[in-house]
Write a structure and sequence with these properties.
The chain is built from 5 helices and 12 strands. With 211 residues, the chain is of the alpha/beta class. Helix 2 crosses helix 3. The chain is globular.
Length: 211
């Protein structure tokens, strides 16, 4: 059963059936919405609680989580404000639904704001799966990410986010103390069955370690 609640973000929430699994914060790409990644979340972590907000910025009518000035050029002032808004929403939702800190599962624009959350508000997340992510800031803020585990999947043929950009983000997160697994897939920007399989396997291993 899913519910749509307002809180500070329009979102959907699917209660979990296995409390041993970390809840997933699903963060869609440009043009997605609060329903976009629910099937992916259910596929990669069956039984986990799913929290899926809709981005509050519109670009040519398409929802995003923050503004950009051009392809690959972010409005960093807006990004910082939107990341704080999202961190506040996560806290609201945790209180409403009785959740521990979620693990972000973000694609493209959603992966980039998840990376920003890790760097600005690390306590908001327990970890992250970043699908097609790049560095959110030209000069990353100093932070402490010890104990955070991150899976990053990039596409070697991605015309939007080259693998080198994902590698740079991975180095930043590792430098802050996160345990990062980065894999470069024979794929473009879109998600593939490889993304699904690797994410599911990584989350299963993570749940096993936590248990």
């Amino acid at each position: 059963m899913t519910t749509t609640e307002q809180l500070s973000f329009v979102h959907r929430y699917v209660p979990g059936t296995d409390t041993a699994l970390p809840p997933l914060l699903l963060l869609h790409g440009t043009g997605g919405d609060e329903s976009d990644l629910l099937p992916l979340g259910q596929a990669v972590s069956p039984g986990a609680a799913l929290l899926s907000p809709r981005g509050q910025v519109l670009e040519s009518g398409m929802p995003r989580f923050f503004r950009r000035l051009a392809e690959g050029v972010f409005d960093e002032e807006d990004l910082r404000r939107r990341a704080q808004d999202l961190a506040d929403f996560i806290q609201e939702a945790r209180e409403r639904y009785g959740l521990p800190a979620p693990l972000a599962l973000g694609f493209s624009n959603g992966a980039n704001i998840a990376a920003a959350l890790l760097l600005l508000w690390p306590e908001a997340l327990s970890g992250a799966v970043l699908l097609r992510a790049m560095p959110p800031f030209r000069q990353p803020p100093a932070t402490e990410l010890a104990g955070h585990k991150v899976l990053m999947l990039s596409g070697v043929s991605d015309p939007i986010i080259p693998p080198a950009a994902s590698r740079a983000l991975a180095e930043t997160l590792q430098g802050a103390g996160a345990e990062v697994t980065l894999k470069e897939l024979p794929a473009g920007h879109g998600l593939t069955q490889m993304d699904l399989g690797l994410t599911k396997g990584w989350l299963s291993q993570l749940a096993g370690r936590q248990g």
